[in-house]
């Protein structure tokens, strides 16, 4: 369910995010990491690993996950949930791709 204060904002083009890579959207309330999978799906998470706050944007994207560069936690891109045996969650930001443009619900 969409919050009353959310609105969709165009943030970049798909080509601004490297395949199997990320781009950071700097925000006062916390940076957002935008991730692109090898099949051009886009996901957005708060750029902080739930373990010790490592920058997820500097991690390796593989399949539907990103691996934190600090301690190797694997975070599911769709949900922000850490893969077992680790427990924690990075805040997910709703995203969509339309006509080559990336939109976030902010």
TrEMBL record:
Pfam families per the UniProt record, alphabetical: Rieske
A single GO BP: nitrate assimilation
Alphabetized PROSITE patterns for the sequence: RIESKE (PS51296)
CDD domains: Rieske_NirD_small_Bacillus
Keywords in alphabetical order: 2Fe-2S, Iron, Iron-sulfur, Metal-binding, Nitrate assimilation, Oxidoreductase
Iron-sulfur keyword on record: yes
Domain Rieske intervals: 9-104
Alphabetical list of InterPro entries matching this protein: Rieske-like_NirD (IPR012748), Rieske_2Fe-2S (IPR017941), Rieske_2Fe-2S_sf (IPR036922)
Span of the signal peptide: none
GO molecular function, a single term: 2 iron, 2 sulfur cluster binding
Top-level lineage group: Bacteria
Family matches, as NCBIfam families: nirD_assim_sml (TIGR02378)
Protein name: Nitrite reductase (NADH) small subunit
Lineage: Bacteria, Pseudomonadati, Pseudomonadota, Betaproteobacteria, Neisseriales
